[in-house]
Amino acid sequence: xxxxxxxxxxxxxxxxxxxxxxxxxxxxxxxxxxxxxxxxxxxxxxxxxxxxxxxxxxxxxxxxxxxxxxxxxxxxxxxxxxxxxxxxxxxxxxxxxxxxxxxxxxxxxxxxxxxxxxxxxxxxxxxxxxxxxxxxxxxxxxxxxxxxxxxxxxxxxxxxxxxxxxxxxxxxxxxxxxxxxxxxxxxxxxxxxxxxxxxxxxxxxxxxxxxxxxxxxxxxxxxxxxxxxxxxxxxxxxxxxxxxxxxxxxxxxxxxxxxxxxxxxxxxxxxxxxxxxxxxxxxxxxxxxxxxxxxxxxxxxxxxxxxxxxxxxxxxxxxxxxxxxxxxxxxxxxxxxxxxxxxxxxxxxxxxxxxxxxxxxxxxxxxxxxxxxxxxxxxxxxxxxxxxxxxxxxxxxxxxxxxxxxxxxxxxxxxxxxxxxxxxxxxxxxxxxxxxxxxxxxxxxxxxx
Length: 449
Hints:
By secondary structure, the protein is α+β, with helices and mostly antiparallel strands. It folds into three domains: 84 residues, Nuclear Transport Factor 2, Chain: A; 143 residues, Nuclear Transport Factor 2, Chain: A; 120 residues, Distorted Sandwich (Glucose Permease (Domain IIA)), CATH 2.70.70. Helix content is 22%, strand content 31%. The strands form three sheets. Strands 11, 12, 13, 14, 15, 16, 17, 18, 19 and 20 form a ten-stranded antiparallel β-sheet that branches. It has a five-stranded antiparallel β-sheet with strand order 1-2-3-4-5, with helices on one face. The termini are far apart. The N terminus is likely disordered.
């Protein structure tokens, strides 16, 4: 049987060729498989209907989240406008509103627009140390102005149309009850300072007991003082002193108590435990924290003139500038200067009594002025015939000089609360009486230990 000849140059095929009539079916199957795979990769498990392992699902979701996070936003983010800020200026010596407005970049026309509807508001009076703040828009137009007069009061001027409407913003400090105990080692002032009391509160304490204790001579080492008072607190920090509510002063074994009380007519004062006023007709001494350098002496040898001249008053040695108080209510009959007296003040108290204050450094009152007990009338000096800083104090009764240190024995007694007022007063002090007693007991126990 003859063999079929093989054509030259041809390579025999090992795979049979797919018949032409079957090629479209294979192509369609291939494309369908590709489309199915693409659909599964782009659709979620719920859309595809094919269950996906939990780990694979988490991975897919994580991948999608990363891609979305890295992808640029389709639209730019909307910027939130920032809160308008304030530009503040502190009022200095010699400043006026026009200067401050110009310093802030505003004109006198802006000042006129703020002030025209606010004639009676605070901007008519500005003082050094206060703050003027300005708020403007992006174009530099004035929107609001604030005048910070103190930590408790700010006046705000806000633009409404072409006008600026003013409103006051007030703050009220919190009142916090405090108590303190102290023992005198040398003076009331040093004991109070060591205990943390302000100078003003120490002076108030001296004023409360000034009618029963001579702070020049009476206080002794070991005397004890207990004080109930209020402190004014703002934003969690001490802002100012509040009033003294009650206090006790044990001097040489004798205890004096004082309680703050406002009567039915609205008058506030201090009374002892039985309702007798702590405010006597006159203070025992017209200044505090000093020493007596020369007593009342009708036969004294004058230190400058070297002759025997009566010393008709009491000399209190004190540093220059120490405040001098009016011993009682009255009217200033004389205030001036003479060569022997230096700067001096004379005060008439009713018809019978008169007090004189000599060698003052500065005068704080004028002739004809009305003064209240405890008002500062001058400061200690060494003007006139004086060898050093001191106050020469005289007390006259019906025109006759009396010893200022003993005259209180013949002076009018302190007034008491009216009989109908007494029950209300005693009820109001029940708690502070117990608090002071508790402080005294606690201190005695501490000393005993």
